[in-house]
Design brief:
By secondary structure, the chain is α+β, with helices and mostly antiparallel strands. It is 30% helix and 29% strand. It is built from 19 helices and 32 strands. It has a six-stranded mixed sheet with strand order 2-3-1-4-5-6, with helices on both faces. A six-stranded antiparallel beta barrel has the order 7-8-14-11-10-15.
């Protein structure tokens, strides 16, 4: 069954709470002071079932200007609004603030209500015209207008029908989401935290996306805590449930946590699914140009209110420095408010939760140009190009892609393992790699290119790309270099530079007597030390065995032809005699053959050829 979550809005004393009571039969004002004064101070909550069977929950927000922060906390978590203007009072000052907040948050779904029509029936048409004009520039320009009386009940059935027909939109992109997104990662902004005798700590909030079940482990991020918590129990609309999905008012019983350690603006998250940031780049969605809003403001997002420092990049884009880390992602809506009581200054949309530093002269202007060209919903190619390579998981946390299985969807982006890599960056790294390998080979004949570790240092790959071997593999292929024995080189070189003549003399000697390996001092006399022999081995020109035994690479195959003619079981001494060599050569050579699986030891003294 489709679920609906609606926040009220409008000037103080225009009948918002009375309307909720009339629709639900529930008193939304929770505090005795609110009921005594007839003034909503904090958020109120109520739920009912519409005639179609659709569940609807209301978040009743205060209308007084002194409680704008509470109103924003209620509006920010709701996908739809019920905006109330009293027929007997008409449009008022706080109507402006709440309209601006709705526009700032990008709420594009709702019903406009003219309340108390029984007190001023002749004024309804004029108020209707004013309400339509005030909302003309907003996402509620085409919202239905219903005239009601909570006292007489007139218009309530029509209002219920209008609410029943609402199709909730995402706001910025305008995509229909009638049931929210139960598969999205959980982010529950907390609006209340309290203790119940026998139950312990309970938090409440409006769940806009994801699904929570009893026993789930969530991450709590708040002003006093950042820890894992377990969900002990769930209530939805005053009923115990095993799990709850999007667009629901929920109360969660949390295990092992004191209520005094929690507060409004703290948030429960699906673990490992959210990026916490203190710096975001934003685009103005409504209100004043961001270069006119001031430098020190309060930012409202979800139920959180945090001081921010605004650095305007141009009139429509700004960088915000938050006073604490918040779990934000691409396209989140936020409201900038004057903390001195100047009301809503602007509504913004998050464009980047991991922006680059602005350190060079002219960097701010360049960043503004980049953001101006970025489409709503983000630009995957631009995000990858800026970083060179980035993990898919990071892009999911940023909100740039929807899932780990996302396709790059652009020729300029390659998927390599669990990374998105910029194709031009791969080619640039390949050009650099080939140049460095050629320089290494030209500078020292005995050096076979460079190691993989040296290549990573020379290329300066992003850290995520350094940790993923497949990225360097792709660069190696693009560079048209080869990898042999752990080194990268342009081709399989054979010559040894100044040691080439000595190497050829050794090769001639071993071709004449394959198993008569020179002694170490003989090799040094030829000018073939460890460095020269290591280079020769890397070029495939010698086989080096333990004990400084040096043979030609085909020595094992030659030895097998001799050993295959012996009796089925032979000793090391018999093998030495047949090969015409010494024990110094025969023992490591036989062990090498054992290691290849060409011969096999029967016991301590005998071997056999593996047929």
């Amino acid at each position: 069954m489709r679920r609906l979550l609606v926040a009220t809005a409008g000037h103080v004393d225009h009948g918002k709470s009375a309307l909720v009571r009339a629709l639900t039969g529930v008193e939304p004002d929770r505090w005795e002071e609110e009921r005594r004064r007839g003034l909503t101070i904090d958020l109120g909550f109520a739920a009912t079932r519409l005639p179609s069977g659709r569940d609807v929950a209301f978040v009743d927000v205060p209308g007084h200007e002194r409680f704008l922060d509470n109103a924003l906390a209620g509006l920010a978590a709701a996908p739809a609004v019920c905006f109330v203007v009293a027929a007997d009072q008409g449009w008022q000052r706080q109507s402006d603030d709440h309209r601006d907040a709705i526009a700032a948050l990008g709420i594009g779904t709702g019903v406009l209500v003219i309340s108390r029509c029984d007190l001023a029936p002749d004024a309804v048409d004029e108020v209707r015209r004013r309400v339509r004009a005030e909302f003309a520039p907003t996402g509620l320009a085409e919202a239905p207008i219903v005239a009601v009386s909570s006292t007489t009940g007139d218009g309530l059935d029509e209002l219920r029908a209008r609410l029943d027909g609402l199709q909730v939109s995402s706001g910025a992109a305008g995509e229909d989401r009638p049931d929210g997104d139960d598969d999205a990662p959980v982010r529950l902004w907390i609006d209340r935290a309290f203790s119940i005798s026998g139950a312990g700590t309970v938090v409440t909030g409006s769940l806009g996306a994801g699904r929570i079940a009893g026993g789930d482990r969530l991450r709590l991020v708040g002003r006093q805590a950042d820890r894992q918590v377990d969900v002990r129990g769930i209530r939805r609309h005053d009923e115990d449930v095993a799990e709850v999905g999007a667009w629901s008012r929920v109360a969660l019983n949390l295990r092992g946590l004191a209520a005094e350690d929690l507060g409004r603006g703290d948030v429960l998250l699906a673990p490992e699914r959210w990026h916490l940031t203190e710096t975001v780049d934003v685009r103005r969605a409504s209100g004043l140009p961001v270069d006119q809003v001031g430098e020190h403001l309060s930012m409202f997002v979800g139920t959180a209110a945090v001081p921010v420092r605004v650095r305007a990049l141009d009139g429509d884009h700004a960088r915000l420095r938050l006073s604490r880390r918040l779990p934000l992602r691409l396209d989140d809506a936020a409201v900038l408010v004057d903390p001195g009581g100047g009301g809503v200054r602007a509504g913004v949309r998050v464009m980047d939760v991991d922006p680059p530093e602005l350190t060079r002269r002219g960097a701010a202007s360049a960043r503004a140009r980049t953001l101006r060209g970025r489409p709503p919903g983000g630009d995957l190619a631009a995000e990858v190009r800026r970083r060179g390579a980035v993990s898919v998981d990071a892009l999911v946390r940023f909100g740039v892609v929807g899932s780990r299985t996302a396709d790059p969807g652009a020729e300029s982006v390659r998927r390599i393992a669990d990374l998105f890599v910029d194709a031009d960056a791969v080619q640039a790294w390949a050009t650099t790699l080939r140049r460095k390998v050629v320089e290494a080979e030209s500078g020292e004949p005995l050096t076979d290119g460079i190691t993989r570790g040296a290549a990573l240092d020379l290329l300066g790959l992003p850290e995520c790309a350094r940790r993923e071997p497949a990225v360097l593999d792709a660069v190696v292929v693009a560079a048209e270099v080869q990898e042999h024995a752990g080194r990268l080189r342009t081709a399989l070189r054979r010559d040894l530079g100044d040691a080439e003549a000595a190497m050829q003399m050794l090769e001639r000697r071993l071709r004449q007597d394959p198993f008569r390996a020179p002694e170490a001092d003989e090799l040094r006399g030829l000018g073939l030390g460890r460095r020269e022999l290591a280079a020769a081995e890397a070029r495939g020109r010698v086989l080096r065995l333990p004990g400084e035994v040096v043979l030609l690479p085909d020595a094992p195959a030659r030895a097998m032809r001799v050993l295959s003619s012996l009796e089925p079981e032979f000793t090391a001494g018999r093998a030495r005699e047949a090969l015409g060599t010494t024990r110094r050569v025969a023992i490591p050579l036989l062990e090498h053959l054992d290691g290849r699986g060409w011969t096999r030891r029967i016991d301590a003294g005998r071997r056999t050829v593996v047929r």
